[in-house]
What we know:
194 residues; alpha+beta; five-stranded antiparallel β-sheet; 10 strands; 14% helix
Amino acid sequence: MNTDDKKSSIPSDKVKLFEVLKNQTLSKLTRFSWWESSEAMEQCEIAHEDVFSLTAGPVLLYFQSGLVVGAASDPAQNSVVIWVERDDTGYVTEEPTENDTDLTISALDNQYSNSYWNKIVGQNIKMINIIKRDPQNALLAELQNEVGVELVMDNGEKFILSHGLHNNSDDFSVITESYIDRRLLENLERVKLM
């Protein structure tokens, strides 16, 4: 992977990275919230166990190999964006998300997450799909509309790095399929990468 492959971009530009992630063990998932957990409950109007999934802010995926991958939303592209935060060759992105350690929430947090994530962390990635959304207007037709990256683990469990799929917004979330706003389902298409 060259440095350009590591910069923030839409999922379809990250096929090489996704090939590297296949069969890797996910050792940790951390959200970098815009707010303290209790304030996120208020700001986002969510239950305490949904703060990890639904707070505002990016997520970092840590792998046993030393690779760290980030994900967030880019409303200007109506898409999720992915980047390499750090890799096993010593590469570190210019402005690491990891340096913002004040407001982090682990997927395995007992209070601000739910037990589903115990089935995800520690598993290997078996398959990765991009979720595309049909554009809802002419302006969106000009954009990428790659609104999700679905990661399927080797135990069959899966989760989605999502651009607004939980509430039809521009908000980034880390969700399971059950969180997808049902009104959006008929406008979504899964593109299998591998």
